[in-house]
Design goal:
The chain has 138 residues and is α+β, with helices and mostly antiparallel strands. The chain has helices at residues 5-12, 60-73, 78-81, 86-92, 101-121, 127-130; strands at residues 25-31, 36-45, 48-57. The chain has a three-stranded antiparallel β-sheet.
C-alpha cells in the first residue's frame, strides 16, 4: 500500500497524542469492522479549541488521520471546526489509499463526538449544531 510522505510523517511522529485531564469535550468513535478506535479530547474556551489531544488504537492511517485532524482544529473556533470534513483531512495528508478512507471518516466523527459531548455538558441539544454522530460500535 502506498502512503504519502505526510501520512508516514504523522504516523511515525504523531502530533497531540495523549489526554487532557481537564478536557471539557471528549469523543470516542470506533469501527468494529477494522478495530480502529479514536478518542479525542478538547479543551474549549470562548468557543475556541485551546487544546486538543487524541488516543488512537488502530492502523497507521488511523493514527495519521487523528494527528492531522488535531493539527487542523487546534486554535480554531467551534464554527470552523464544525466544517472539518474527512475529505479535508485526506487532502491535508495528500490522500489515502481507498481501503483507508474510513480512517479519515473516523477522525471527523471523533471531533464531532467531542463537540456533541461539549454541548451536552452545557445542557444544549447538540444535534442541531453538530448533526448526527454514529454511536460507538461495541
Amino acid at each position: 500500500m502506498n502512503y504519502s510522505e505526510k501520512v508516514l510523517d504523522h504516523f511515525t511522529r504523531p502530533r497531540n497524542v495523549g489526554e487532557i485531564p481537564d478536557a471539557n469535550a471528549i469523543g470516542e468513535v470506533g469501527n468494529a469492522k477494522c478495530g480502529d478506535i479514536m478518542k479525542m479530547y478538547l479543551k474549549i474556551e470562548d468557543d475556541t479549541i485551546q487544546d486538543v489531544k487524541f488516543k488512537t488504537f488502530g492502523c497507521g492511517a488511523a493514527v495519521a488521520t487523528s494527528s492531522m485532524a488535531t493539527e487542523m482544529i487546534k486554535g480554531k473556533s467551534i464554527a470552523e471546526v464544525l466544517k472539518l470534513t474527512n475529505q479535508a483531512v485526506m487532502e491535508a495528508l495528500d490522500g489515502l489509499p481507498p481501503v483507508k478512507i474510513h480512517c479519515s471518516v473516523l477522525a471527523e466523527q471523533a471531533v464531532k463526538a467531542a463537540l456533541t459531548d461539549y454541548y451536552t455538558r452545557l445542557g444544549i441539544d447538540p444535534k442541531p449544531i453538530v448533526g448526527e454522530v454514529p454511536e460507538m460500535a461495541e
